[in-house]
Design brief:
Strand content: 25-35%
Largest sheet: 6 strands, mixed
Order of helices and strands: HEHHEEEEHEEEEHEHEEEHH
Radius of gyration: 20 Å
Number of helices: 8
Shape: elongated
Number of strands: 13
Distance between the termini: 39 Å
Structural class: alpha/beta
């Protein structure tokens, strides 16, 4: 019995992740992992401030490739391709018109986000057939993407304006018909997130188990 527990990873795994990953990536991964490793506890720190993962006391983090810290080992986790999407309620679009080009958004009420760093989630960027268009939207509401992104979605459903978020975040409301895609042919795709961790430290058993789980289940969690 003692040898059985020695071979079973145990302890706490602390992950520093952006809010989008906590919402859109981890729910597809953690249930299976925790079922396979019942002696491991996961602590998720959802933070869009891009803090130093090691200095914050975390074992690993999730970030997108352009935001990876130096001297880190990175491996793909979650969907390998994602898109930013724009959407609004059908009632809003019936009243205000449906944009035909990203620049038309300048005449609309846009619901914007702000990172914990203070930076706005703008300009909004669109791409079609190799053409990239950036617009600086204006509107009646700015909400923290770290804790109030659902408010942006709810306000869009309520008819207050056009929202821009990850497609997977908006997809349930689009599928229900309470939000309508705006400029879907212009939605910009980008590469998916990475799990990253220090290459200079001995891997604690919970992190090693998590890495092995991600690798073993990559086809199931990367599509």
């Amino acid at each position: 019995m003692i040898n059985l527990f020695r071979d079973r990873p145990a302890g706490t795994l602390r992950l520093n992740v952006p809010v989008s990953a906590a919402r859109l990536v981890l729910p597809a991964i953690l249930p299976g992992f925790l079922a396979d490793y019942p002696d491991i506890q996961i602590e998720v720190v959802a933070d869009d401030g891009f803090v130093d993962m090691v200095a914050s006391g975390c074992d690993a983090g999730i970030r997108y490739d352009e935001r990876l810290e130096q001297d880190m080992i990175a491996m793909p986790i979650g969907p390998r391709v994602q898109r930013f999407a724009t959407a609004a309620s059908p009632a809003y679009l019936d009243a205000r018109g449906r944009p035909g080009h990203p620049r038309d958004l300048l005449a609309h009420a846009c619901l914007r986000g702000r990172f914990t760093s203070g930076a706005l989630t703008s300009p909004w960027e669109f791409e079609r057939d190799g053409e990239i268009v950036r617009v600086e939207p204006q509107g009646p509401l700015i909400a923290s993407v770290a804790g109030a992104a659902d408010l942006l979605v709810d306000m869009a459903i309520g008819g207050s304006g056009i929202v821009s978020l990850f497609e997977d975040w908006l997809r349930p409301a689009i599928d229900r018909g309470v939000l309508e895609p705006v400029l879907p042919e212009w939605w910009q795709a980008f590469s998916g997130p990475y799990l990253y961790y220090s290459g200079r430290r001995l891997l604690p058993p919970p992190l090693r188990a998590f890495i092995e789980h991600i690798r073993a289940n990559a086809p199931a969690v990367s599509n």
